[in-house]
Design brief:
CATH topology: Alpha-D-Glucose-1,6-Bisphosphate, Chain A, domain 4
Oligomer: single chain
Number of strands: 7
Radius of gyration: 16 Å
Order of helices and strands: HEHHEEEEEEHH
Shape: globular
Structural class: alpha+beta
Helix content: 25-40%
Distance between the termini: 36 Å
Number of helices: 5
Strand order of the largest sheet: 1-7-6-5-4-3-2
CATH architecture: 2-Layer Sandwich
């Protein structure tokens, strides 16, 4: 179970961990929240997995996606991170707290095979334009295929962000693409 801060004020704290370890169609996403579940193949083999996992756990995926990052060196439960979203000095601070983290490990699947996984999920803190949680995962399947998986559920944090919802959705789609490109780059891909 995730250890949470009293400042994490969205429903179903740690839900992205459950989603990360089960089939997405089985997840009871909170009502009124949009959700994202994107998986991208980034290569194959243990070296590719290790590079992606390390890039996720050390915030490099956010940096390569164009965000500034103020955080401890590694994603661990309770770590606070403030990413800067925007251009140059015009950046919106987006504070989060890590609610769960998995260092690389093999997990048994329901089908009886093992998948190697690493990653973390963080939740929004006051001052973030959204309420919700986002997770970043490196996965290596039994056949050696390596995937980057991004999971999130969110809704606007207040009236001003609700009014700007169409712009926010476009920005989220752009950041998702940037994360996918960063995962490919971290993995040695294109």
């Amino acid at each position: 179970m995730p250890q949470g801060s009293s400042n994490l004020d969205y429903p179903q704290l740690g839900l992205t961990r459950l989603a990360a370890l089960t089939a997405a169609q089985d997840i009871p996403w909170p009502k009124g929240f949009s959700h994202v579940d994107k998986t991208t193949t980034v290569g194959s083999g243990p070296e590719t997995f290790a590079a992606l996992a390390e890039g996720i756990m050390t915030w490099e995926i956010q940096r390569r996606a164009g965000l500034t990052v103020k955080a401890p060196p590694r994603a661990t439960v309770g770590a606070r991170v403030v990413s800067g979203f925007g251009v140059g000095q015009l950046r919106l601070p987006v504070p989060c707290e890590v609610v769960w983290a998995l260092e690389p490990q093999r997990l048994e699947t329901d089908e009886g095979s093992a998948v190697t996984v690493a990653g973390f999920g963080y939740g929004t803190l006051p001052g973030h334009p959204a309420l919700g949680e986002e997770a970043f995962l490196a996965l290596m399947r039994p056949d050696g295929a390596v995937h980057f998986r991004l999971l999130a559920f969110s809704r606007p944090a207040g009236l001003i962000y609700t009014l700007g919802s169409p712009v926010t959705k476009l920005a989220q789609a752009g950041v998702t693409r940037s994360y996918q490109q960063a995962a490919r780059a971290l993995s040695g891909g294109f």
